[in-house]
Each structure stands twice: as structure tokens, then as C-alpha cells.
UniProtKB/TrEMBL annotation, chain A:
Catalyzed reactions: (sulfur carrier)-H + L-cysteine = (sulfur carrier)-SH + L-alanine
Domain of life: Bacteria
Name this protein carries in UniProt: Cysteine desulfurase
Taxonomic placement: Bacteria, Pseudomonadati, Pseudomonadota, Gammaproteobacteria, Oceanospirillales
Molecular function terms from GO: cysteine desulfurase activity; pyridoxal phosphate binding
Record's keyword annotation contains Iron: no
UniProt organism field: Aliikangiella coralliicola
From TrEMBL, chain B:
Organism: Aliikangiella coralliicola
Signal peptide stretch: none
Residue span(s) of domain Fe-S metabolism associated: 9-128
Protein name as it appears in the record: SufE family protein
Membership in a protein family: Belongs to the SufE family.
High-level lineage: Bacteria, Pseudomonadati, Pseudomonadota, Gammaproteobacteria, Oceanospirillales
Highest taxon in the source lineage: Bacteria
SUPFAM superfamilies: SufE/NifU
InterPro entries the record matches: Fe-S_metab-assoc_dom (IPR003808)
Annotated Pfam families: SufE (PF02657)
């Protein structure tokens, strides 16, 4: 049945990508900040939501609000149906083999912690090694540090090259029979660099290691196919891909998830409870203790519908066009140095203005209505490796425009005048 | 010496953000820099995006402070705080309503702990010092 759904999606005519119409789908883009039109270039932190996603939450509370999987009445049946359909939607979105492989979480961070505290505690012991990269977000470092400390394993970071790219040779040198897990970001949040995850997964599997991909930054930009990647775990968040905050996904290969012990205990995740012992529910519910984020899941399905009505490769092309335009414009500012360049990357412009503190630049941009992120981007080891205190990160989405890029550069000129 | 009243007067006189920020940046530039040797871990105030250092001295019943930041606008904000706290007694520091002062300057958001600029933590530190000496 799922294959039929996938086919239907392919045969349906796609909506034409018209930037004016697309922008009008996102009500917040009309907001004014500091009396200026908002230019939202902080998509790496969180994405804005289309009206259909906002409506999905509203609609749920107006018509279907009820607890799921209780089956006692019509509303609960309807809520359960929407909730479980959303799971299948996510399954198809990342091309997973079965709905049981889709676990709802609060987000990428919780997904990674779930793997660390269940699969990790069962499979990683004293003397074992976990490989991460210097590019990782703290969320893909700290859960492994906590695990390593408690089981006596070692955490090894892959170096990066001066252009911000991962040093693949160093990665292969670190791989050994001791490697039990490789945990790597699909796309670096701080620089937008796309890691060669397909090759890394193959190489890791050759030494018998499992691979977890932190897909938080990839889900809004790339078409994900977990079966083609052959990753063992894939973690991502709703809020970075136009869905609400507080909802996320852990994908895991079924045999791994089946063998993993539960993490949080409570309702829903049990089969039978008695004081002499408790048996646990089957997948995916084994990992979903407590009443889930029902409206979040349903709204995430709406976000996927929103994305999939377009030709997604065309959207990626549009975003790449924006970043190429911005990169070219960067040459007009001699003091501007792009961090993460000449490599395979997504629509992120991470840079410094020599002689200016990134926070000062961010504040002057903010006054001009431009939202960017400044600082270490929750990637302090990366900033240390690059010998930087922080960068200014403009992260673009498909609803941004070249006019907004122009305004960013005008605003940067102004910041320079003020600060230099 | 610049007083809080001077700063309130000047900032309320400007009607564009450009002038306000230029003034804050000028205040930042005129703040006497701290000796690099003093910029140690112990003098660092926790902040996320920019660094703030503080070195207090207590003499003749008055506090004086050397403060610095690696970010220019934060240096301006430090100068604004110093107008209120520098060369004041512990009693004067405790009695000064810094929240109200920053509200009047329309800069209250910079005193929020979530701003990550270390300013709020520095203000807390000065108030604690004043309390412990009073």
C-alpha cells in the first residue's frame, strides 16, 4: 500500500515553484521588526511555518483533540488515524522500509540521546570507540561523551581541513575493529558543509560499526533515502523542516530497534504491567512512553505535504542559486571571509568580517530587520579547530530571495561603516 | 564624568537607531581598555556570544571597576552600566534601579539573561559585591 502512495505522489502533477506565491504561504514573512520588513536568514536555527502547518494544529484542536491509541470513542479513533498516518508520511518521506522504524521524539537531540542510552549502553563497552567529527553540533557530541564516560569508551573526533571540509583520510585512519559507532552530521549546522555520509557509512560497515546520521540540517534541504544511504539510525527535527517545535523523529533499522531495550518507562510503551514484572509494547510504541505530541506529528505530516507538492530538486536548485549569488557578492567586501568554502555545501553563508566582532555585526543587522545567527552555533569544538570565536551565519531557505541577499549586503556595508 | 542622566538625555534626543547605535559605539570606543594581563578566566563573566571581564576595587568606601569586552557594542553597554556604578558606595549601587535605567534607555532587552552578552551576569556580580560590603 505504501508503494502505491509513493507512486501516486510521483504521478501527481507538481505545483509550480512561484516565489511570490510561496512567500505568501508563510504569514510571518510579512512581519515588521524594528519598523522594517523582516528578512529571515536564520533558517538553520529554525524554519518558518506555512499556513497549512499552522492550520493543521488549529484544525486538530478544533475538531480532533483526543488521546491516541485508546480506541474508546470516535474522536480518539480519528486522532489515532491522523497520528498514525503522519508516521507513514514520515516513513515515505525518508523512504524507510516500515512504519515501525519511525519513532516520534521531541527532536534530533532526543533521538540521539535515545540511541546513546539504549543501543549505546547495550553495545558499547570499555575500550570501544565512537567516532564523531569536529563539525558536529553539541547534540551529536555530548550524548556520546556521557555514554563514553559511563561505559569507559573513547570518543574520537575526525579532523577538518582548513576549508571546513571533513578530513576523509583522517576518518579512515580512525576506523578500526574497535569502532562501534560513527555518529556524523549529514550537513554541518555551523558551515553548511555536506559530509560524504554515503562513503562514511560504507567504510564504517566494513569494520562492523553502526552509523547514526544527525539529519537536522539535511531534512529541510535534501531528499533523504535511508535505505539507499544504508544508515543504521537517522535523527531529525520537525521545526527545521517547516513543522512545529517539539516534534522529531528517530529512524532505526528494525532489527536494531527490536533488540534495543526501552528508554523512558510509562504509558503506551508497555504491553502488560504487574509488580512481578512488566512486558513492553512492540515497535514503534516501545520507545514512545507517555501521551505523544499528537498535533506536532499531524502538523509534521502537513509540512511534508507542503514540501512534496513541489519538485524538491528544483527547490534545492533555487536555494543553491541564492547561496551562489551571495557567495559571489561576498567578493565585494574585502574584509569578509567565508568559512566553509570550495566544498559541497548547502545554502548557508557562514562568515566573519575581519576587524568586527560577529555579535556587533549581528546587532546592526538586527536593527535593519535582518535575522541571522552569530556566535559558535553550538559547535564550540569546530570554532576552536578553526581558531574562531564565532561566525555570522546567514542560512537561506527556499522562501528567501535575491533581493533579500542584496539587502543583507547593504546592511553589512552599514555595519562595517559603524564598526570599523 | 558621564552620569546616567547624561546618557538618558542623549539617547532620548536621537530619533534614529543609527544615531543611538553610533552613540553607543562611541561610548564603547571611549571606555578605557583593560590591561590584557587582567583579562583572565577568573575575571571573566559568563556570557555566550561575547566576553566580559570585570576587576573591582574597593577604596575609601567606594567601588571602582575596570571592565572590558571583546565586542564593541557590549563595551558601549558596559560604559552605560559604569555611568551608574563606577565610584559609587555599596549603598548607592544597591539603591540604583538598573532595570528602570535600561528601560528608560530602551535597552532593557540587553539586560536579559538570554542575550548571552554577559551584561546581566556582570550587573548581578556588582550588586552581590555591593551587598557583601554593605
Amino acid at each position: 500500500m505504501n508503494n502505491i502512495t509513493a507512486l501516486d505522489n510521483q504521478t501527481n502533477a507538481k505545483r509550480k515553484f512561484d516565489i511570490k506565491e510561496v512567500r505568501s504561504d508563510f504569514p510571518i514573512l510579512n512581519e515588521k521588526v524594528h519598523n522594517q520588513s523582516l528578512i529571515y536568514l536564520d533558517n538553520g536555527a529554525t524554519s518558518q511555518k506555512p499556513q497549512t502547518v499552522i492550520d493543521a494544529i488549529d484544525n486538530y484542536y478544533q475538531h480532533f483533540n483526543s488521546n491516541v491509541h485508546r480506541g474508546a470513542h470516535a474522536l480518539s479513533d480519528k486522532a489515532t488515524e491522523l497520528f498514525e498516518n503522519a508516521r507513514v508520511k514520515v516513513q515515505n518521506f525518508i523512504r524507510a522500509n516500515s512504519r515501525e522504524e519511525i519513532i516520534w521524539t521531541r527532536g534530533t537531540t532526543e533521538s540521539i540521546n535515545l540511541v546513546a542510552q539504549t543501543w549505546g549502553r547495550e553495545n558499547i563497552g570499555a575500550g570501544d570507540e565512537i567516532i564523531v567529527t569536529t563539525l558536529e553540533h553539541h547534540s551529536n557530541i555530548v550524548p556520546w561523551q556521557i555514554l563514553c564516560e559511563s561505559v569507559g569508551a573513547r570518543l574520537l573526533p575526525v579532523n577538518i581541513k582548513t576549508n571546513g571540509e571533513l578530513d576523509y583520510e583522517h576518518f579512515t585512519q580512525l576506523l578500526s575493529a574497535k569502532t562501534k559507532l560513527v555518529a556524523v552530521g549529514h550537513i554541518s549546522n555551523a558551515l553548511g558543509v555536506i559530509n560524504p555520509v554515503e562513503d562514511m557509512i560504507k567504510a564504517a560497515h566494513q569494520v562492523g560499526a553502526k552509523v547514526l546520521i544527525d539529519g537536522a540540517q539535511a531534512a529541510p534541504h535534501l531528499v533523504i533515502d535511508v535505505q539507499q544511504l544504508d544508515c543504521d539510525f537517522y535523527a531529525f527535527s520537525g521545526h527545521k523542516m517547516f513543522a512545529p517545535t517539539g516534534i522529531g523523529v528517530l529512524y532505526g533499522k528494525r532489527d536494531l530497534l527490536d533488540a534495543m531495550p526501552p528508554w523512558h518507562g510509562g504509558g503506551e510503551m508497555i504491553e502488560k504491567v504487574s509488580f512481578s514484572g512488566t512486558t513492553f509494547n512492540k515497535l514503534p510504541y516501545k520507545f514512545e512512553a507517555g501521551t505523544p505530541n499528537i498535533e506536532g506529528s499531524i502538523a509534521m505530516a502537513a509540512a511534508i505535504d507542503y514540501l512534496e507538492q513541489f519538485d524538491r530538486d528544483g527547490m534545492t536548485e533555487y536555494e543553491m542559486d541564492l547561496i551562489n549569488y551571495a557567495t559571489e557578492k561576498a567578493q565585494s567586501i574585502p574584509e569578509m571571509k567565508i568559512i566553509g568554502s570550495d566544498c559541497n555545501k548547502t545554502s548557508v553563508l557562514s562568515f566573519i568580517i575581519e576587524g568586527c566582532h560577529s555579535q556587533d555585526v549581528g546587532m546592526i543587522l538586527d536593527q535593519q530587520g535582518i535575522a541571522v545567527r552569530t556566535g559558535h552555533h553550538c559547535a564550540m569544538p569546530l570554532m576552536d579547530a578553526l581558531d574562531l570565536k564565532g561566525t555570522i551565519r546567514a542560512s537561506f531557505s527556499f522562501y528567501n530571495t535575491k533581493q533579500e541577499v542584496d539587502k543583507l549586503f547593504e546592511a553589512l556595508e552599514k555595519a562595517k561603516q559603524f564598526l570599523m | 564624568m558621564t552620569t546616567p542622566e547624561d546618557i538618558i538625555d542623549t539617547l532620548s534626543f536621537f530619533d534614529s537607531w543609527e544615531d543611538r547605535y553610533k552613540y553607543m559605539i562611541d561610548l564603547g570606543k571611549s571606555l578605557p581598555p583593560m590591561d590584557d594581563a587582567l583579562k583572565t578566566e577568573e575575571r571573566l563573566v559568563p556570557g555566550c556570544q561575547s566576553l566580559v571581564w570585570i576587576e573591582p576595587t574597593f577604596e575609601n568606601d567606594k567601588f571602582s571597576f575596570q571592565v572590558d569586552s571583546d565586542a564593541l557594542i557590549v563595551r558601549g553597554l558596559l560604559a552605560i552600566v559604569m555611568a551608574a556604578y563606577n565610584n559609587k558606595s555599596s549603598q548607592q549601587i544597591i539603591e540604583f534601579d538598573i532595570q528602570n535605567y535600561f528601560s528608560q534607555l530602551d535597552l532593557i532587552k540587553h539586560l536579559s539573561p538570554t542575550r548571552g552578552n554577559g551584561l546581566q551576569a556582570m550587573v548581578e556580580k556588582i550588586k552581590q559585591l555591593a551587598t557583601s560590603y554593605s
